[in-house]
Amino acid sequence: MNSLFSAIILFTRLPLWRWVDIPRESYDRAVVYWPLVGWLTGGLCALIIVLCPPCWDISIVVTVALLARVLLTGALHEDGLADFCDGFGGGHDKDRILAIMKDSHIGTYGVIGLILYYMLAVRALSAMPAWVAGLAILACDPFAKLCASQLTNILSYARPEGAKNRISYTRMNAAQIALQLVTGSAPLFYLIYKTGPLFGLAAIAPIAVCASLMLLMRRRIGGYTGDCCGATFLICELSMLLAVDIIWWSAP
Questions:
Q1: Could you tell me which of 110, 136, 54, 122 has the C-alpha nearest to residue 231?
Q2: Distance of alpha carbon 114 from alpha carbon 35, whole angstroms
Q3: In sequence order, which residues have a C-beta less than 8 Å from that of residue 215 and are 6 or more positions away?
Q4: Is the pLDDT score of 166 beyond 70?
Q5: What is d(CA 106, CA 114) in angstroms, rounded to the nearest whole number?
């Protein structure tokens, strides 16, 4: 339970640390519960999209839902995406890429990356009926977190000095990976149940994107960083949302 609480503390702004004393070692296993935290962040978006008055324009509702998630997470993943785009866009070798990603300032690549992500995410969700968009974000958020968390299990940490938050995620054992698969995939199966088996194909997109990003990270910096995890989550989620959108409008 401590590891779950540590995941909520790390990946959201909920102040559980005020009431729960978490052992230091629990944070090293927090990534195991990242998909489960996706139930919370994706569920918040889904509730806003589904429960907002039908008189509201769907694009406004989707924007409000994504804004609510940013407030809940403290823009943690968006910060990672911006740093990732700046580092890999402007760096020519490992040392330069890592130095750029460590810089707190945002550059041109980061700004463009965030703009493109939100333009495509809002457009993809707005193109679907509200109930489908709600189910889609509820499924895509945990599944994308499931994919992104595999970076810590497959790659080594890229910085020799370790993470700046001094947390070193331990590699997951078989039982922990199984738990991740269940918590990350369960909302997707609910989407399939409500919309049809064809929507299961949407899972191919984030898996392929995650594998491609892992190869890029291994080649350019020899591993991953926290920014890489946040960026991978958002890019995988976007690819899955776009896949769901395509399937919705292509299905007979």
A1: 110
A2: 22
A3: none
A4: no
A5: 11
